[in-house]
Amino acid sequence: MASPAKRTKVVKSEHSSSRKARKSANNGAFRLEKPPSAKGFVDGSIYRVKMKHFVTYDECEFRPGPHLNVLVGPNGTGKSTVVCALCLGLAGSPKLLGRAFEVGEFVKHGHPQALIEVELFNSSGKNYVITREIFREGNRSNWKLNGKPATMKEVQEVTTMLNIQISNLCQFLPQDRVVEFAKMSPQQLLLATEVAVGPIGMSDNHQQLIEMRKKEKELELSLRGKTDHLDKLKEQNQQLEHEVRRFQERERHLEKVQILEKKRPWAEYEEARVKFVELKNLREEAKKKRDITKRQNAPMQQNLSAVETELKELDAAMKQQNDNGNEVIRKAKAKSDQLEKLNDQVEEHMNQLKDMKDQEKRREKKIADLERQIQGTQNELEKLPDQSDLQPQIDEVTNNARRINRELTGIQQQGSRILDEKRHLTAQTQDVTSRLNKLEDMKKLRLQYLRNHNRDTYNAVMWLRENKDKFSHPVHEPILLQVNMHDVNNAKYLEKLISSNDLRSFVFESRDDMKLFFNEVRDKQNLKVNGVTPPDHPLSSFRPSRNIEDLKQYGFQCYLKELFTAPDAVMKYLCDTYKAHDIPLGNDWTTNNAEKVINESGIMHFYTPTSRYIVKRSKYGNRERSTLVENIRDARFFNIAVDMVAKRQLEAELQEVKSQLQTMNANYQQLKEQETALTSQLEELRNSKKTLTSQLQRRRTLANQLENKQKMLETVKDEAPNLEAEESKVQKSIDKTNSKRAEVLVQFKDGIKQCVNVCKEKVRISLQHARLSAEKTRIGNQFREAQEQVKKAEDEYEAAQANLEDQRRRARNLKKTAHDKTGIPEGEEVPSSLRDAFKLYPDTLDEIDELIHEQRARAECNYQTDPGVVKEYDKRKKDINNITTQVETQESDLQSKQQEISDLKERWLTPLEDLISKINVKYGQFFRMMGCAGEVSLAKDQGENEYDKYGIQIRVKFRAKDSLHVLNPHHQSGGERSVSTMLYLMSIQEMTSCPFRVVDEINQGMDPNNERRVFELVVQTACKENTAQYFLITPKLLPDLCYTDKMTILCVFNGHWMLPHTKWNLQGFIKKRRALSAA
């Protein structure tokens, strides 16, 4: 039984009392008896629908007619809920409805589960009864098919068999997806039309054509790549052909060089063998010449021996005289040395006397210098202050310096303490600043989120930050960046409240600024951005309708406005648009007692920790109340927020630390000034002490110097020598030495005479020796000449023998070399093939070398090509052959693929063009009946073969003076697009193969004239024989519309006094009314 809060009843104008469904337990299945009124239904039509605890319904069951069903009722009564039941009951996805993402959200508030039962007509047996139980917890469902447990896949197989396409907007168009259908691209509309009314296989052929065209493109691209690669390879090989030919020609020349180089050692060996024979003959002739010369030179040897004996005797006498002469010379030399020594002694005595005189002169000069220095030192001492005066001054300066040092130390210690405190405060400042920066980084995270999810809005924000000076009033960045939560745990409530479009909206305090902004970013930069303006009245005017203290009994603690901060303009907009100042936030008690809160508090919109509650009242009848409950998801971006309390605390702390730093800096500067003054005084005292100390030290130094110089003067004066006595002593030594010199000179004269006599005897013997030596030389020369002739003959013989042996070894080595170079084993003859090759070339070495040089020169003229290039040429030639085969194969495959595409295209395009032509005829007829014009065509703008770009193009004209324009949001109004969409659906209705069609509130935005015309067209087309079942959902019907007997009007009522659907009997009501009237 329906709850007191709301009862809903669906009433039909036909079949309401004649249809009955009997249920009996028979293996858990349903047995259905079709009444006679089942005529007109086609297989898969909706025969019966039952809902229990589904969205706004407690329990409801209705039976639609086989043709046009008009479901009418005020807004909020539950018309679209019926559409939801059909979609979910026939295994459709919640996403198709555009209302919720989870099936559990369709369970009526306050109940754990809901039930949907849809009965589909089956002309060949029992109707199909599909039952779906939906559980709120876990978002799960239980399925039954004809009373037996089933799976969602089994249910989908039944709907597919009956050609029920819930996901096709041409068949099933919910209210929330009407706009989506109108926004379908031509390509999407074509695919939907193929699925909805195309012959079997047309959609599959289209998809297959798209895939085949894609593969054809890939094959063409691959073939083009291989062809280009093949041409490139051919071009590369063509560039190398000349080099390869030169390489081959060079190889031929080098082959001749190889043969010549093999013949050359054999030719060289032959020349060596001939030369060996010649050298053997020359050796024999040299031997004969040597023997003859030896016999002729024998007498000369005897004469030479006699002369040599006589010369030896003279040499002995000569030696004796030399020994005598050497002894005499030695004695004379001794006397000469003795004489020279005595001369040196005389000279030494003279020099000694001269040194004594020079030393006396230096002593006298030194005495004069010392006396002058002593006088200067005494003068300087007299000018310096007395030591008794200097020392007290130094002591006084030292005491003052120590005092100032103590003061400086104290000041420096104070400065060090201040510096330590400054470092501590600086570190504290950096820490506070770092924490503030981390808080500011939270704003950057939101900006980064905006950049990743809406680049146009991000770019507009960046432009605004650089161009704020262009606006007369403040322009606020998107609300997403302006709102800051006091507690990020409450961010989810605000995200649920504000729409995504408004979150991305800029807030303008002046409409002129908004117009300027849109002109810059929308028109010039083509950025898709949103903008809003707050109301003119002040923020203080937005006050809650009830004091929060009065609501705390229901668990409410605050209003949403108190959960966040934002600029006044942003806050005014949120209060004006979303009533943020008047929506309270409850606690868990509110959640557990939601019904009590709704019934007693009178609050129409509030939040709990997990849900949002919106209470609505119908504008009709008893103003029945309905409640919408929505789950609240976790926050995505408002939880990225700056803690304002922490920020203010940190800013205050930073200000305090900076103030302390400023005070510390002033104190430190004062100490530095004092330190500078004291340092200056200390420096003056140090300079004064240095001067006094220097004077005292100088006085002491001069006193010491004076004492030392006086002692030195006395010493020098005491060292004066007796020059006359020394001079007399030296003269006596000189006289004694001169006497010895006279005696030695006489002895030296006698020695010289003896030397002269010895020399004369040596001259005589020398002359005789010279005569014999000349004779010996003459005979020796003759003998040497003869010996040279003998030696020459001997050398010639030896040379001939050596040459012969060398030639023998050379010939042997050359033969071995020839065997090695030709690869012929030693002892074997040259092969006949090689001999024949040798015959083609000269036999002499010069000719062979000349020919080798010539062939090498020709080879060098063909500069050496890299063998890798030749290998590359050969490898590329193989690649060319392989790729040529692949290209030929791919060309054949491409031709086959193109032929296959052509055949499939003909099978697909011909019926498609015929289908669209038929749709165009019907579409044009419908528009002409309305006094307008419209046409449907197949768009091939982007090429005949671009099958994924094929689409349906709808062109319409609603005014006589206009021309046909493509249907889009730029040329037609929303109502005109609704009319065009509705007429397109009607155009394909007669060709449809689906069992039913649902259109929810397609008449939104139509003017009454168009709405009436469209309704009449729907009636005419949907009420024909053999047409699909039609559901038209509308909140109202115009007066004096055209109706037929095949129409079924389903009226949705609600209120406290509605009868349960099981007691509803329209025929009984009529009979009772007639009875009352008759009475």
Automatic annotation (TrEMBL):
Residue intervals of the Rad50/SbcC-type AAA domain: 48-382
Region (Disordered): 1-31
GO MF, one example: ATP binding
Keyword ATP-binding set for record: yes
The keyword Nucleus is annotated on this UniProt entry: yes
BP-aspect Gene Ontology terms: double-strand break repair via homologous recombination
Subcellular location field: Chromosome; Nucleus
One protein family per Pfam: AAA_23
Compositionally biased region (Basic residues): 1-10
Assembly behavior: Forms a heterodimer with smc6. Component of the SMC5-SMC6 complex which consists at least of smc5, smc6, nsmce2, nsmce1 and nsmce4a.
Family in the record: Belongs to the SMC family. SMC5 subfamily.
Name of protein: Structural maintenance of chromosomes protein 5
Biological classification of the source: Eukaryota, Metazoa, Cnidaria, Anthozoa, Hexacorallia
